[in-house]
Every structure is written in structure tokens, then in C-alpha cells.
Design goal:
The chain has four helices and nine strands; from the N terminus they run H-E-E-E-E-E-H-E-E-H-E-E-H. The chain is an alpha+beta fold.
Length: about 170
Amino acid sequence: SKTDNLVLRIVRMNNYPLILEQQQTSKLHILNEPFVSATPNFVVKKRTISMVISEDKSLQNVSKRNEYGEMQIAGEILACSDENDRRTRKIFDQVLFAVRFISTYVTFYKAEIPGGYWKELVTGLPKKYSVSIKRWPGENDELSGLDLADPEGRMAVLTALTKIRRFLLK
């Protein structure tokens, strides 16, 4: 949406060396076969690092029944991480960020994915390694998240995006 684009441009997620791509399809491979495809609305890339940005204009599309879209976010994060490994032809520990916009509400996610997770996934479901995904703010319902319509929420979103940008530019 125009709001998402404006917010991302304000914090300069689309300026070199970062690249802002729209509707970039990524695939999650299990046993070396594509298993899940994900097409987040935006992906911010810097060489081997990517950040997923997903948006849904309507609160009607999220509910407790679909876990407020969090399985979709997890799939997009994993597929994006898998693409990072495949693009670089190296398996490495990754920290990925995701941002979800639902109506005016924004939620942030930070995923830590050990390289060993991908090595195990080649032979089946991982037994030793796991993925950690943290959500901020911590609540999970249709009205949780930072509200862009609220000045304090808007400031918190811009501050968080600026911090993520700094991390990506390290």
C-alpha cells in the first residue's frame, strides 16, 4: 500500500546498498526439493542478508483460526533464508527480520537461523537445530502491533525500522 511504501522510503530501505524488491518469490527446500513457495510483498536485500515485509490491508483476513497470519510470516522468513543460502552457495548462520503491516498495525519479527538447520534439512526435518523467531510487540491478536495511526506507535515503528536498517548496513 502507499502507507507501507512511504514508511519504507522514509527510513531509506530502498537506497543503495539496500535493494527493495516487490513480489519476490522464494522457495523453501526440504530434502533438496522445493516444498513451499512464499511471495512476500517486499524483500529488502543487501548481498547475503534479506528482510521480509508482508502486508495485508484488511483486519478481516487475520483471525485466531489462521493464527493471525504468523504461519505465513514464518514460511516467508524460512523461504527467504533458504534463498540467501542458495544465492550465496554457502550455508551460514542468519539473522533475518520481518515486518508485518495489517491495516495500520505493525509487528516486527527477528529470526535466528543456525547454518546447521539447513544442513539437517537436506536429509529431512531437523532434529538438533531449530529456528528462533521473536515477535515485537509480544501480543498476538488482530489488534496487536504498533499502530501507525497513533503518534507514539508511528515513532516506535520508524525507530525500529531505522535500527533494523543500521543492522543491515553493518
